[in-house]
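Record type: monomer structure entry
Structure origin: computed from sequence
Chain ID: A
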Amino acid sequence: MAERTLRILNKILDTIIAIVLILAVLYSVYSLWDNYQLYQGIHDLQVKLKDLKPKGKKYPLKIFAVLVVRSTDSYIFDPSQYKNNRQHFYLRSM
């Protein structure tokens, strides 16, 4: 009788372990899929943002100058101080 009870308990324990392992595998697959979806969404967003980026070198400077003038009255963009077409902005106080 004790041997039969132990076999039944052993089968129950084996079944519980199998269910836990199957759930762990399913959760792992879901985690990988979810991470893939997140990175795919980020990639799509980066592509859209690159499409919105203005082309050319002088256009961003004009936008920057307009934003500086609109954001504060104490600074202005001085194009005469912009040297050698580098990406440095020189602001001077009014």
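Annotation 1: Residues 85-94 have pLDDT under 50 and may be disordered.
Annotation 2: The two ends are 98 Å apart (CA to CA).
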